Amino acid sequence: MIIDFNLMYESLPYLFRGALVSLSIAALGCLIGFIGGTIFALLQTNAVRVVRMLVSSFTAIVRGTPMLIQITFMFILLPTIGIYIPAFWVAVIAIGINSTAYVSNVIRAGILSVARGQIEAAYTLGLTRLQTIRYIVLPQAVRTVLPSLGNEFVTLIKDSSLASVIGVYELTKEGSFIISRHLNSISIYIVIAGIYLLMTIPLTLAINYLEKRMHRHVSH
Amino acid sequence: MLVINNLSKKIGAKIILSKVSLQVPRGHIALLLGSSGAGKSTLLRILNGLESYDTGSLMLDGKPLDVRSVHKTHTIGMVFQHFNLFEHMTVLQNCTLALEKVLGKSKQEAESIAYTLFTHYGLADKANQYPAQLSGGQKQRLALIRTLAMQPSVICLDEPTSALDPVLKRQVATNIKQLAHEGLIVLVASHDIGLVEQLPCTIYLMEDAAIVEVADSSDFANNPKKYPRIESFIAGSKYISE
Q1: Which string of DSSP letters, residue by residue, matches A56-71?
Q2: CB of B48 within 8 Å of any CB in chain A?
C-alpha cells in the first residue's frame, strides 16, 4: 500500500518536533526581518543619499540571490571569520537577513503611503521627527502593509525548510530522515504538507482578521 | 503684532512670493484673498516653517521670528485645507497627542483641555470616534481644536470654508471671529468671497505672488469703488459661481 496510515500516525511526534523548529526559525527570522526591515525602510526614506544607496544595494543583492545560497554561504562564511554558532542560529540569521531585505521594501511602501499632510500637521504641532515616525508614520505604515507582512511570515515558514541543507532538523529534514528509514515518501510528504498547512492557514486567517479589525475606522 | 516685511521666494525662475508685507495686530484678522496660485497658502506655510523663503523678515510682538524653529515654540498654529487629521487616532487622541508629547501634559490634563474645547465646539460626543466617521464640518472643527489646544499666538487657516455648505461656512466665520475676539492673530487664506462680508478683517488681495491691494472690510463694504481690484475680483468670482 502506498499510503501507510500507521507510519503516518507514528511519525507525527517526530514531525511535530520538526514543525516546532520550523516555526521557531520562521518566527525568529521574521522578528529579525521586521526590526531590520523597519530600520532599513526608515533609512531608505530619511537618511542621506550614501546610506540610501547602501541600503538599496543590500536589498538588491539579497533579493537577487536564492535563499538556499545565502544559507549555505552563511554556514560556510561564519566559521571562517571565527564565529561558531549552531546551524539553527545560522539558519535564523540567514533567513532574518533575507527577510530584512523584503520587509524593508514592504514597509518603505507603507511609509510612503502615509499622507504627507499628516506629517506636516505633526511638524506644525511641534512633534519631533522621531515622535512623528513613532506615533504617526509607523502605525499607519504597518497597518497598510500588514497583509504583505503576514504573507512574508507565511513564506518564511515554508522557506525554513531550506535550513535542512545545513543539517537543521526542522520539519522537512525530520520527514526526510523518516523516509530514508521506511522508504515511504508519499505518506510522509502528505503529513509534512498537512502540518505546513496547519501552520500557515490559521496564520493567514489571523492576519485577515487583524487587517479587518485595524481598518475598521479608516476611510479609503 | 505679527509683522511680515518684504517676504520673497523664488523657485528657479518662478516667483512664488514677491515682496509681501503685512502687519496684523493681536485680535485682528488678515484675510488673504486671491485665486489659486496667488501665493496665499505659501505665505501661511512659510509662517509655519513648512517652506523656506529667500529674503524678507518676520517679527512677532517686536521680536524676530525664526520660522525654522517656530514649531518648537508652538507660537503659530495651522489649520490645513484638507485638515490633515491623524486617521488612525480617535478625535480625542488627535487632540491630546501633542499636548502630552510636546507640552508634557499628563493624560488627565490633556484630556481635560481637549474636552473643554470639544464642549465649546460641539464635538464632545465624538471624542471616541475616528476622523473617517466625522462630517466635513466636524473634521474642520477638530483640526481647529487640535491647533488651539497648543495655545498659539497666531493661527493660520488655509481655505477654511472650502468644501463646506453655506450653513457651515457661517459657523466657521463665527469661529474665526471668536478666535480674534480671544486675542489671537488670525490669518485666513481663502478665495471664498463670502468671508469678505462675514469677517471684520483687513483684506489683502494677492495676485501673481504679490499683495496688490489692501482694504479694511468695513471700509470696503461702504465704498467698494475705492478698491477697484478687490471689487473686480469679487465681481469675477460671483460671475464664475453664477
Answers
A1: HHHHHHHHHS-HHHHH
A2: yes
CA-based end-to-end distance of chain A: 56
Cβ-contact A190, A11 below 8 angstroms: no
Domains and their CATH numbers in chain A: 5-214 (1.10.3720.10)
Among A127-136, A184-193, B166-175, name the one with the lowest average pLDDT.
B166-175
Would you say residue A1 has pLDDT above 70? no
Q: Tell me the mean pLDDT in the region A19-43.
A: 94
Q: What is the interface pTM, i.e. ipTM, of the complex? A: 0.89
CB contact under 8 A, A117 and B84: yes
What does the DSSP assignment read for B73-121? HT-EEEE-TT----TTS-HHHHHHHHHHHTS---HHHHHHHHHHHHHHH
Q: Compare all CA atoms of chain B with the CA of A131 and give the residue at the minimum distance.
A: B101
The x, y and z cell numbers of residue A52, run together, are 540610501
Structural contact between residues B71 and A123, judged by C-beta atoms closer than 8 angstroms: yes
**Among A176-190, B11-25, B63-77, the least confident range:** B63-77
Between residues B163 and B26, which one has the greater pLDDT?
Answer: B26
Contact A107, A152 (CB under 8 A): no
- Which amino acid does the sequence have at A71? I
Question: Between chains, do A125 and B147 touch, taking CB under 8 Å as contact?
Answer: yes
Read off the pTM. 0.80
The pLDDT of residue A209 is 85
